[in-house]
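Researcher: Here's a chain I'd like modeled. Treat it as a single chain, no partners, no ligands.
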Amino acid sequence: MIVNPPIEEYLKQLLPGRDPILAEMESFGYNINFPILGPLVGTVLLQLTTAIRAKRILELGSGFGYSAYWFSLGIPEDGKIFCTDLSIKNKEKAENYFRRAGCENKLQFMVGNALEILHDLDGEFDIILNDVQKTKYPDVLEPAIAKLRRGGILVTDNVLRKGNVVAESDDESVAAIQRFNKMMFESQAVISSILPIRDGLGICVKK
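Model: Modeled as a single isolated chain. C-alpha cells:
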C-alpha cells in the first residue's frame, strides 16, 4: 500500500457511485483477487481522456476490460479502445460487459502478445496504457512513445511496486520497473511524473 490506508479510504469515499456494469466489474475483480486498477486510478484515466479529448486508445494488457470501461466513459461515440490480452476468456468477458453497457462499438479486443500487437498496429494513439508483464516494462517505453501523437499520454501502472522500488532488489520485476522509471524520466521525448496512488501511476506526455 503506497498511500496511507485511512487516506486512501477517505479518497474512495469521496468518489461518486459507479454505474451498475462498472460496479459489477469491480466486485468480480475483487472476488477473484484480480489486480484491477480500481476507481481512484480509473477516475484519473477518465480525467486524462476527457482533458485531451482522446478518441483512439491502446491498452497493453487489458485483463477483462475494467480500465477500458473507464476509458469508454470519456471517448466520443466514434472513439475506439484497442485492448490486448493473452486470454480469450478475458476477451469474451470484456466484450460481454461492453455489450451489456451498449458501447460495444467502442471496443476492439485482440488476443495475443501486447508488444507484438503494438508493433503491428498502424496510426497514432491519444493514450496508451502500459500494464504488461512487469519484466517487459523497459521494452515498452520507446515503441509506445513512437505510437503516440504529440501531446499523447503513456500511462503505466505499478511503477512503485508496493514501495519496493526505493531499494536495490533481486526481484526481476522490481529491477525492471526501476529501469523503466529511470528511462521515462531521462527520455527527452516525454515529460514524466509519477502519481503515488494505488501502486504508483506513471504519466508520460509526449512533447
